[in-house]
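> forwarded from #structure-qc
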């Protein structure tokens, strides 16, 4: 368990993006040099030595976490983007959000069947984004190795939802019950 007080750098925003939702804003954590370094180090150290060759991060906040984790692990970073953002052939996967639906795409040549892939994002709520990324990795035939998140909204049961599709490890630094 971490000794860093991540929660002091996460701000609750009530009624955003719609009434009744309490948005967990991690941008103060990412903007804090010590907090950001501690979070990236903790995720990276957890997966160090596990042979990860690619990290997939979902648009857009997953880029903030995934790219530095990939750097620390000495592997490549693959952005999972919204439709229309990638210029070459893509794999696509639709998914449900806690308040809507969306789609992610990854370039077909970004991951090979020889890769060992970790999905990294800032937050897991219902698990839809994470599952969509993992399903794309499966389409490629690469070895999917697990999930890592700065924050888990445990009260939404993302582990149960993800567990229906995948049995790989789910690692999160902060759990909100």
């Amino acid at each position: 368990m971490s000794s860093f007080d991540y929660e002091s750098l996460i701000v609750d925003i009530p009624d955003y993006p719609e009434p009744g939702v309490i948005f967990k804003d991690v941008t103060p954590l990412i903007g804090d040099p010590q907090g950001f370094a501690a979070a990236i180090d903790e995720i990276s150290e957890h997966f160090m030595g596990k042979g990860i060759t690619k990290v997939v991060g979902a648009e857009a906040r997953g880029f903030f976490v995934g790219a530095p984790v990939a750097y620390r692990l000495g592997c490549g970073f693959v952005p999972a983007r919204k439709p229309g953002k990638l210029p070459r052939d893509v794999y696509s996967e639709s998914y449900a959000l806690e308040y809507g639906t969306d789609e992610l795409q990854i370039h077909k040549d970004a991951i090979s069947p020889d890769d060992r892939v970790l999905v990294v994002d800032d937050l897991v709520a219902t698990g839809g984004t994470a599952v969509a990324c993992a399903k794309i990795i499966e389409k490629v035939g690469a070895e999917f190795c697990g999930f890592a998140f700065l924050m888990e909204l445990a009260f939404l049961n993302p582990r149960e939802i993800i567990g229906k599709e995948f049995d790989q490890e789910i690692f999160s630094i902060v759990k909100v019950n």
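QC bot note: The chain has five helices and nine strands. The two ends are 16 Å apart (CA to CA).
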